[in-house]
Amino acid sequence: MNYDVVGLGQCCIDYLGVVGQYPDINEKSEISDLTVQGGGPVATAMVTLARLGARTAFVGKISDDYFGDLIKESLTSEFVNIDNIIVEKDKRSQFAFITIEKETGKRTIFWSKATVTPLRPDEVNRNLISTAKILLLDGLMKEGSLEAAKHARDAGVTVVIDAGSMREGSLELIKMSDYFIASEDFARQYYNGNDPKAAAMDLLELGAETVIVTLGEKGSISVSRKSYLYQPSFKVKAVDTTGCGDVFHGAFIFGLLQRWDLNKIMRFASATAALKCREIGGRTAIPDLREVEEFLEEEIPK
Fold first, then answer.
1. Which run of H or E residues covers position 238?
2. Are strands 210-214 and 220-224 parallel, antiparallel or unpaired?
3. How far apart are CA 148 and CA 98, in angstroms?
4. I need a labelling partner for 137 at 20 to 30 A (CA). Which of 118, 230, 250, 254 fits?
């Protein structure tokens, strides 16, 4: 089977709950609205794409533990193919505890790193990547990501990078990417200053066709050799911002699949990410295509 998008990266389980106010050390705060669901940058982007109507497959590594079983179910229930998830026995899959501040929707994350080994280059299914139109990578497993990116380039597959923070291999990956989507934190770490546009312009020189920087509630920008675009965020009552960037990435890729112009893609991705914030968790309120289209017909960016 051919896939629209193959994603290679991190996957985890999130425990999420709401607090009225974040407590100080040695204080207590009651948690409400506790929920458990799948997470991880690329995994959540694949779920977003599946809900929008794309055919997706996820490549990653988990263990044969309780969290690993939950991770698999969280993807298969969303019709994301997991045939290429590698299960390493007797280790621990990744999980996180996330507290959400009720008034702002902002969150604090405590996470436990998986004890499985990183995906090796020889564990990357090159044939799977060749079937895709687009490959999404988060760069969290350096060697596996570089191998996948290299093969995608050789096969003529578009490469999109989700750069959440600066890490080893990030700059190597941008040289192999078509679209490099950086968080505001990544741009600040790279450029050593609070100037997202200047950071994007600098990153563009490393080889990507287009550099996008997501700015949270301030919106997003994109820079190419032909244009600069600022996309404001959309006004919604934010219950939880967990997974917002991941959903943006998935929706952005959906726009690429439709061959929309960059202005339309950025607006669509911003709207999809905004709608995600309506409920707790990175996946609960990810909209389908009809919801996004109806929202865009009614809403004006703030």
1. none
2. antiparallel
3. 31
4. 230
Mean pLDDT score, 191-220? 92
Which pair of tokens denotes residue 122? 């020889």
125 neighbors 135 (Cβ within 8 angstroms): no
* 251-287 pLDDT per residue, tens: 999 999 999 999 999 999 999 999 999 999 999 999 9
CA angle 7, 10, 15 (to 5 degrees): 125
User: How many angstroms separate the Cα of 201 from the Cα of each of 88, 171, 197, 221?
Assistant: 41, 14, 6, 11
Domains of the chain with bracketed CATH: 5-11+40-92+119-298 (3.40.1190.20)
Phi and psi, residue 17, nearest 5°: -150, 155
User: How far apart are alpha carbons 212 and 199 in whole angstroms?
Assistant: 10
- Runs of H (alpha helix) within the chain: 41-52, 66-76, 126-131, 142-155, 170-174, 184-191, 196-204, 244-258, 262-276, 289-298
Task: Give the pairing of strands 179-183 and 158-163.
Answer: parallel
Which residues are within 8 A (CB) of 269 and not within 5 positions of it... i.e. 6 or more apart?
220, 231, 248, 249, 251, 252, 255
Are the CB atoms for 191 and 166 separated by under 8 Å? no
pTM for this structure?
Answer: 0.94
DSSP string for 133-144: SEEEE--SSHHH
pLDDT digits (tens, 9 = 90+) for 205-215: 999 999 999 99
